[in-house]
Amino acid sequence: MSIVQVKNLKKHYGQMEVLKDISVEIAEKEVVCVIGPSGSGKSTFLRCLNRLEEITSGTILVNGHEMTDNNSDINKFRQEVGMVFQQFNLFPHKTVLQNVILAPIKLKGKSKSEAETLGMTLLEKVGLKEKANSYPSELSGGQQQRVAIARALAMEPKIMLFDEPTSALDPEMVGDVLNVMKELANEGMTMVIVTHEMGFARDVCDRVIFMDGGYIVEEGDPKDVFTNPKHERTRSFLSKVL
Ligand code: ADP
Ligand code: MG
How high is the ipTM of this complex? Predict the structure, then answer.
């Protein structure tokens, strides 16, 4: 069963068409990596999925809800889609635990103690239980990104979107963040991950999508796409990054 259905999605910025007729379905529990050159539309595509961007035309259904319907309760549906960015954007004057429990209390009406119990479980899951009372500035980039993942998970989303979650990290921090994502994948979280980590894409993802120039040029099993790309543009991109 598809949890995400994108049909004929187009996105313009002014005269520039950035997404050109994207159609794709994502199954429940599927882990999809999106790769492609800078400027190919990967971030815009992710942002359209939780309607951080207004789309120009097409339809996007997430968990059966029409994300593009102006009459629907977009804030409620957006809660079903967690997002993790390259920049972690934690609230600097709040502790790690306060960062994690804020949205469940404000947006989901959880009690403080309920949110804290969930928050501590999630911090344990990302290996940062002992940092609950620290401030973001006291944490490394990799730790901050793991807090950002816990914060997104605290909303109990149906699907998690990651936009280059390790690109801003020092190399020695990357592994810990990827391991948390791998664990989520193993637990059956539906995930769409824009990444330059080709090893992760190959080993963890069920499907890889190669985007270029606003199109999905090629998609398939990572082993097939990486070892035997069908399109010249995919071959050329992979030859530069592998
Ligand atoms: P990627 O994530 O693959 O690097 P993006 O989705 O960020 O690509 O960008 C795709 C194209 O859209 C680029 O040409 C970029 O300059 C343009 N773009 C992205 N965001 C905006 C914006 N807010 N306004 C105008 N153009 C944008
Ligand atoms: Mg991007």
Answer: 0.98
